[in-house]
Amino acid sequence: MHEHDAATAAGERWFAYAAAYPHSSMEIGGVAVVAGPTPSTAELHALIDLVRAAHPPLRDRARVRGASAGGPAEPAEHLQEVALPAHGGDVALHAAIERVCAQPLTDVSWGMTLLHGHRDNEFALLLRAHHGLLDGVSLIGITLAAVREPGLPHRCAPPVPPPSWTTARVRALVRAVAGLALPARTISLGPTRGQAPTGPPKRLWVPTSLPRMKAIALAAGTSLNDVYLAALAGALRPGLPDRATGAVRAMVPLNTRHGSTSTALGNFHRGVPVVLPCHLPTAAERLAATHLATANIRAGRNDPDADVLYETLPTRWHGRALAWALHPRRTTMVATHVPGPAHPLELDGHSIDALLPLMFLPAGHHLSVCLSEYAGTAHLAVVADPSLPDIEELPTRWLAELDAFEASFTPPRHPSVADARSAP
C-alpha cells in the first residue's frame, strides 16, 4: 500500500469514476516518435524498469472493480509489440495508435507498446496509464525518467491536515455545492439524443509552431492557454447545432502542484469550468472573451480553499461528485494543456522527434482535446466519438483560427533589405 497524499486522493476519484462507467476508458498517455533502429526486448524491459522505479504505484497490477491495487506485475507484462505495414508512414502509425487505444489495459496499471515498420529507421513507443495514477505533468516526468534526464520527479510530501474553517472557506464550500446543484444549460456537440460512446474513439493530431502561439499571446495581452481555448471556440463554432441554447462549457484541468509537490508524480489536477465564447462572430472578440472567462483559473491557482468540496465530502462520494461535474448536461468537453520539455530529448542516443499526447473521453462525451508542448512544437490532440460529424475538419479549423489571431493582433511583416535584393 502506498502512502496516501493529495495525489492519491485525487486519483481515487478517477478510479471510482471508472468503476461507475466501465465502458469509458480513463487512460491517458503519449506516443514518442523516435529516429533510430527498433530496440530489443531487453532494452525495452530496462526502459520499463526505469518507469516503474520512478513511480512505485506503476508496479501494481490493474485494479479489480471496487478493490485495491493487486500485487506487482512483471516487466514483460507491461509490454506489447505491433508491427506496422512497411512504409505506411504516419497514416499507418496513427491507425495503429487508434487500434491499440481501443483495447483498454486489463491486467496492468499501465502499458508500453512498441510500434515499428511504418518507416525506415523510425519507431514509436506508446505509453498509457489510468488517469487515477498519473496526470499529464506526471507523464512528462515519467518520460524524463525514462530518458535519464536530470531533475527526476519525486514522490509527494506527506499529507498535511486540512486548514481550519474560516468564513472564506465556508463561502467556498457553498459556491462549490451551488456549482454542482444549480442547473447548467450546456450545449452537446453530438447528434441529437446521441449517447456516447457509439464506438471506438477517433484520434487526430495537428502540429503548429509553439513560438507562433506565444507571439500571438504576447501581442494580444493574453496567455498561451487563452489562445488555445479561443481557437478551439472558433473551431467548434461551425459545427454547433442550429438554434442551440446554452453554452459550450469546457472543463479545464488546473495543475495544483506547489511547494513540496511542485515536481511530484501522481494526479494533482482539479477541473475548472470555462465557458467557450463560440457565439461571438470574430476571432479577436473570442480571444478577448476567453481571457475574461479564464480569470477563474488564474484566481484559483493559489486559492487554498479551491478543493474544499472534496476535502469535506466522505471519500466514497468523491467519484459521484466527479461524475456529476462531468455529466454531459453540465460539461460539454474536457480541454487540457500539458507543457513539455523545451529542448529535444534522446532515448539511448536516438532523437525523439515528436511527443503526441493521448487524451481520454469521459462517459457520455463526444469530444476531448489536449494541447501539448515539446521542443518548440505544439500538438493539438483530438479524441472524439465516431458519431460526431465533420470531426476531421476540427484541427484545420483550429489552425485557421490561429491565422485569424495573427491577422488581428500581430503587425504585418515589412520587407527587409535582403528581401528587396532578392526580389525579381
Brief descriptors of the model:
424 residues; alpha+beta; 6-stranded mixed sheet; 12 strands
Radius of gyration: 22 Å
Order of helices and strands: HEHEHEEHHEHHEEHHHHEEEEEHH
Shape: globular
Taking pLDDT < 50 over at least 5 consecutive residues as the criterion, the unreliable ranges are: 414-424
Structural class: alpha+beta
Total number of beta strands: 12
First and last CA, distance = 73 Å
Helicity level: 25-40%
State mean pLDDT (0 to 100 scale).
Answer: 84
Biggest pleated sheet: 6 strands, mixed
Strand order of the largest sheet: 2-3-4-1-10-9
Query: What share of the residues does DSSP label as strand, in percent?
Result: 15-25%
**Secondary structure tally, helices:** 13
Task: Describe this entry's structure for a reader.
The protein is of the alpha+beta class. Helices cover 34% and strands 21% of the residues. Helix 1 packs across helix 11 (318-325), helix 7 (224-236) packs across helix 8 and helix 7 packs across helix 12.
